[in-house]
Amino acid sequence: MEHLFGPLTELARHLPCFLYQLKQSPDQKFHYVYASENTEALFGIPAQAIMQDASLLLDRIHPADAERVYQTSAECAAQLKPWHAELRIIRPDEQIIWLEAFDFPKQLADGSILFSGFANDISQRKAAELKLRRSEAEFRALVESASDIIFTLLPNGVLDYVSPCWQDILGHHPTEVMGKTFDHFVHQDDLERCFAFMQSLLLTATHHGTIEYRIFHKNGQMRWHTSTAAPLLDTDGSLVKYVGIARDITEQKLQNLELARQAYYDPLTGLANRTLFHKMLEQQLALCQLRGDTLALLFIDLDRFKPVNDCYGHAIGDEVLQQVAQRLHHSTRAADLTGRLSGDEFVVALTGFTASQPLVPQILPLASRIQQQLSQPYQVAEHQLTISCSVGIALFPQDSLDQQQLLHLADIAMYQAKKRPGQAAVVFYQTEVAERP
Fold it and tell me: How far apart are CA 169 and CA 4, in angstroms?
């Protein structure tokens, strides 16, 4: 036999695959005419053994594969077409190996079919494929069960993939989202910042980052999200897509806004508290100095408010203070600042006055309107209460450039106003603490 297949045998010694010639006689019996020397290494059966009895190998085809292998082989033999299949072999030691086999049927003169072919051991490839499938299944299960949105974004801004929980969080079925650009969903005012964020991911050494933005629910409600994302790069460094995780932080944002409101706004009236008013006043003074404008700081104290608390109780007094805040809102301009310092003390910063013209005619009508509005009767429950107010005014930069000093001077002017007969006066600060002419 060696002399018949000498060249083939010599070639087979240097090939990792199993080379064979299998003859099928007209009575459907199989006989290996040739089997390469690595038969034993692959299958645990010597080549000479299967050449004497082909069933030693053929009967070791995995039961789950046998019917398919014989059927497809017979079909190819009938048409004399090349055959290809992947199949498992159970070795005598019970180890299962995967083969990828190719053979080429040829009909002989006696009616037999001669299959000349080769088979590669693909067990490692199959193990890798199985590992990959399991990994993909685990990843898919992780993604599909995640409470945060997992997404991929193409370089052109198209959402390539979104996980199923998008529907739970934002109302859209994933099929309504995938294929659309993210600007269909993100708040318009946040788009430029989002684009800049994506560009920055390509420039940073870590290639990942986090951003907060607003996004719309399918029902039109605005939500806050935070996303951590990273670019996926090709081998040449070019961008393939962005991969990210988005979390809904709307409740956290609302809590933060509420905490900020509590920290900076008076809980009773909703006006800026002392802390916030000082911050806003500082900014406004800097702006006035830049523009060369004058700012009028009004210090307002309610007259005869203490008897209201004493006679009717603090609930009625609180309602009066709330109405004062409402009247301040309606009697001031959008650019003016209003705040409550404590008790019945309020402050207003009036802006936009030019020193090139007399200041008192510009400021006094606005201050008087506020004073008159706050001095109108208050209807609280079944009570009609008459309360007036005294207003002291200090000017920036004429009276002081310092914020604290300016507030102190307005307070001095307010106390001078309270000394006026009948109270309910508006007084500008002067060194002599007299009303400006």
Answer: 73
Share of the chain above pLDDT 70, in %: 94
- Exposure class string for 184-210: b at 16+ Cβ within 10 A, else e: ebbbeebeeebeebbeebeeeeeeeee
The active-site residue, picked from 103, 121, 148, 344, is: 344
344 is catalytic: yes
Task: Please tell me the pTM assigned to this model.
Answer: 0.55
Is the CATH number of domain 6-126 3.30.450.20?
yes
CA–CA separation, 231 and 236 (whole Å) = 13
CATH superfamily membership of 266-428: Reverse transcriptase/Diguanylate cyclase domain (3.30.70.270)
Intrachain domains 146-253 and 266-428 with the same fold = no
pLDDT of residue 3: 47
Helix residue ranges, H only, 266-383: 274-291, 306-312, 314-331, 359-374
